Every structure is written in C-alpha cells, then in structure tokens.
Amino acid sequence: MDALEKIFGKTAQITVLKNLIQHKGESTYLSGIAEETGLSHSSVARVIEPLLKSNIVIEKRLGKQIRTFSLNLESELTHHILEFYGRLEKMKL
Question: Which pTM value belongs to this model?
Fold first, then answer.
C-alpha cells in the first residue's frame, strides 16, 4: 500500500489514477488498465468518467469503438496531482 492509498483508501478510482500516473506520457486502453490493476473492465469504465470530466485524463478515439486514455499532462490540475503524489512518495508514509 502506498501513501496515496494510506490517506484516501484503496478505491477503484485511486487504483486507476495510480496506474495512469505510473504510465504517465503513455496511452492505454480500458482493458489494459483492468488487466494491470485487477479491476473489472466495467469498474475501470465507471471510475474513469469523473477523471475525464475533471480533465485529469484525456480520451482519444481510434476508429469508432477503440478508446485510449492517458493523463492530461497539459492540465494544471494534473500537474498538482503529480506534484502531490511525488511529495507523498518521498515522505514514505
């Protein structure tokens, strides 16, 4: 359990956010996040929606049905989250 989970608990949304942070600068699919985190595809789809609405995550469509996701590195909010996460990791809670 890392510092983020110790403070906010191990929720599906925290798990998805951490996965995207760990793959910062990369695009991934819902199924890829589900496979890496052990969450169901439907759980990932559900918890990624608020991250999209907050502009923390961006979605790119490849064709009609394929969706990819990545952290929005142009978002000020994302920068604050990355900075906060980095500071927590250094504290070794």
Answer: 0.88
